[in-house]
Amino acid sequence: MSLLDARNLWLARLLLERGIAAICLVAFVVALNQFKPLLGERGLLPVPLFVKQVPWRASPSLFYLFPRDAAFITFAWIGIVLSLLLLTGIATRYTWSNVLAWLAIYLIYLSFVNVGQTFYAFGWESILLECAFFAMFLGGSRVVPQAIPIWLFRWLLFRIMFGAGLIKLRGDSCWRDLTCLDYHYETQPMPNPLSWYLHWSPHWMNKGGVLFNHFAELIVPFFYFLPQPFAGIAGVLTIAFQLSIVISGNLSWLNWLTLILAFSTFDTKFFAALTNLTPSFEAVSPAAVIVNYVLLIAVALLSVPVVTNMLSARQIMNTSFNTLHLVGTYGAFGSITRTRYEVIVEGTDDAAVTPSTQWREYQFKGKPGDLAFTPPQIAPYHLRLDWLMWFAAMSSYQDYPWFVNFVAKLLEGDRDVLGLLRVNPFPQRPPRQVRALLYEYHFTTPEEHRKTGLWWRRTLVGSYFPAVSLDTPGFRQVLKLQGWLSQ
Length: 487
Fold this sequence. Notes:
There is one protein chain. The protein is of the alpha+beta class. 48% of the residues lie in helices and 8% in strands. The chain has two domains: 3-311, no CATH class; 340-482, no CATH class. It is globular. The model has no long low-confidence stretch (mean pLDDT 93).
């Protein structure tokens, strides 16, 4: 790409830097609010226990040096400050400050992810790490934009979109018979205020939504690499597609980050009718050019298993091929659940369970529970415990050992864990016993909603976790064996 063409990329660079910094800010705020109760020294999956069991080389993290709550909080605040410096453009003014800020963000967030275990085992964690890493090479705002990183952002966007399209075609049959959206709005991890309305939209609209999905994920991505205006049009279509998902549910920052990556397809040529502004830039140093070509070669080599995976009939999704979470393979919703199950956690003040025992429900901030509670808009914020509760409902609590410790925290009245919930039905003192029931949830029909005002109806399936107290024989022994018993 010529110097003249590279100058046209300043808008893409600006939008990418600001957008990625905004998502990093959200990610570090999430870490500040949730990491301690979930993974802190007395969390549901304590990092100090993890670093004793897993060698550093298998999951490199700064927190191997100091797996303490004070460190988790300090580094979350450092990440917040650095994200704000990048978001405001202060840190991007010079190449050296830009590199240092993004490098620090990458290393800090990598440290959170690599000790975050199941609470950080989401594909969008790796996507955000890739974004922060590539942003290091964009150059400061005073120098000519670097073309290679922009193309690498397009390659990341392609992997996200096309990988998602392939996993759907190879996965659930409902993607092929165009019925997936008949179920998705109701059974997705965390519905939002519009999910109920979309669930009851006309059948032809849901079929059209699946077709648009296939078009956006399987055809549009190939246009990212074409000259303008094709690349820009593909970017606009991708943004429109991502916005359609944003308004239909809460998928953390996955859709927002993918939308931001679509900015890599824009340049000033594409927006020539809107602006002819071309700022003046300093020349790029020869060393920076060499570094970017080395980066290109490294990404090309790391992409070999990614391409192999895409071509494989046994395609896997959301997987990193290295501990640095660089150049991974992505894809979402290869299969769609047909029935929604919810784990409802309850407590009681009674010392013994009888037919007359009064149970009170704990309410989560995002996941369904109270039938009258309107599904909230949470994304791009990520409620990690709520998400894990969605997974837990599809299996036994024995497959999710953190759930046992969660019950213990409720019995102890742990303030940090209770802070993750919307309603604590025992504000004065902890319950004497806690249990969990499994329910099948469905959206109310339009007629039911008009009559009752409820968003959900539910049917009891059975017991999920037996009623226990801190004195229940065997319960404390299980906690001790797992190494998670609070001191």
